Amino acid sequence: MKLTELLKAIQPVQVIGSTEKDITGVNIDSRLVAAGHLFMAMRGTQTDGHAYIPTAIEQGAIAVLCEDMPEEPNPDITYIQVKDSENAVGKVATTFYGDPTSKMELVGVTGTNGKTTIATLLYNTFRYFGYKVGLISTVCNYIDDQPVPTEHTTPDPVTLNRLLGEMADSGCKYAFMEVSSHSIAQQRISGLKFAGGIFTNLTRDHLDYHKTVENYLKAKKKFFDDMPKSAFSLTNLDDKNGLVMTQNTRSRVYTYSLRSLSDFKGKVLESHFEGMLLDFNNHELAVRFIGKFNASNLLAVFGAAVLLGKKEEDVLVALSTLHPVTGRFDSIRSPKGITAIVDYAHTPDALVNVLNAIHDVLAGRGKVITVVGAGGNRDKGKRPIMAKESARLSDRVIITSDNPRFEEPQDIINDMLAGLDKDDLEKTISITDRKYAIKTACLLAQPGDVILVAGKGHENYQEIKGVKHHFDDKEVLKEIMN
Predict the structure, then answer these.
(1) Could you tell me which residues are annotated as the binding site?
(2) pTM of the complete model beyond 0.90
(3) Which residues belong to any copy of the Mur ligase N-terminal catalytic domain (predicted)?
C-alpha cells in the first residue's frame, strides 16, 4: 500500500520525505520490522518506541511515524510526525489491513467481570446460528473454528487489526471482543468501527495502572462516548454505573436487569449445581450455568443477539445449548460427593458473586471451603479485601499463592492476612504451595461440602520470577479427588 494512502486516516503535524513509497508492513515492535515497513514509535508504560527508531531503520524500515523528530533525520527515510502516536497507530493499522471492521459486525464487551463469558457465549451463539464468527478474548482468540493463542485481553493495535483482517478475509460476518480498560486508555481500539458495546459492571480492579477508581471508570466510559450513532450500547441497570457509562454516548441505548424494569428483563426461577431455570422477557429457559452473575451475563448475550437482529425465541433456544466457559464456575464432583468449583474470580466483587452463587444452591446444607490467592505486581489494595470477603462467605479459608510474578508469595499472603480479624483468622490457614493448599481443602471437605478454588480459572500455569510453570487447578483437583 502506498504511504500516502495510509496517511489519509490521520492528520500529521508534518511529513519529511516522499509519501509515494510502497509500504509492505506496519509495526510497533522494531524486532518485527522487515524491508519496506513503516515503523511506528509509541511511548509504552515500560519502554519508549522512539529509542528503537535506529534499530527499525537497520532492519529495513523505509518510513517512521513518531511524536518527536530525530535531531539528524536519515535522508532515505520518510518521517511522519504526529501529535499522538497512540491514536494514530490504530488508525494506520486499520487502514493497512483493509478496514476490516467495516466488513463485519464488531461488538465490544467492557466491564470488570463477565467480559470473557459474554464475548465467548455470543461467539458460540452466532456460530450456532451458522455464521462464521471471530472472537478476541482473554482465554483464546478464534477465527471461526481456528484458535489463535492470546497474550493480552485486547492485543496491541497492529496485532488486533491483523487478526480482524484475517477474520474478514475468512468470511466472518460477526466478531466479538473483550475491551479492557488498558486498551481503551492506550487507544489500542482507535480506528475500529463498533456495531455495539456491552457494559457488564464496574468494581475495583487494575488500580496499579489507573491509580483511582474514577480513572478506571473514565476509561470504560470513553468506550461508549466514542461509540458511533449507528451502534447500540447495552448497559447493566443492576450496576450503579450502568447509566453513567451511556450518559454521553451518541449510540442507541438499551438496558438489561435482573432487578429493574428494562429492555431485557431477567429472573432466576430455580438454581441447582447442574444449572438454572430462568425467565427472560416472559419466556422460560433452562441453562447449564449457575449464579445470578451468570444469569446477568446470559441476559446480556440475549439482549445483544436480539439487537443484532435475531428473534427472541431463536436466541433462547441457542442459549439453552451453551456450556460454561472454561475456568468460569467450572464444577467437578468427587466420588465421595464433594463438589469442587474452579473460577477465575480474582477481584473482591467476582469472589462475592461466586460465593453467593454457591450459597444460593447449598442453602445451608454443606460447608464452603475457599482456596484463594492474589497475583503479584498487581493492585495490592484488593488483597486484604479479597481475604475478608472469602472469610465472610466461607466456613474455611486457605490463602495460597496465585501468580506471584516477581513478588515473594509470602509477602502477598501477609497482605491478604492483614485484612482479617481474630474470628476470621480462626478459620483461616495459609499454605504457600498451591497444590498442597488444594490437597488440604480436599482433605478438610466432607460429602455435601463445596470447595472453591479461585483466581486462576482457565490458566494452566503459575508465573514465578518471570517463568511460567505448568499448573492447572482443575487438573490438580481431578488428580487429588480421584
Answers:
(1) 30, 111-117, 153-154, 180, 186, 188, 378, 402-405, 455, 459
(2) no
(3) 23-97
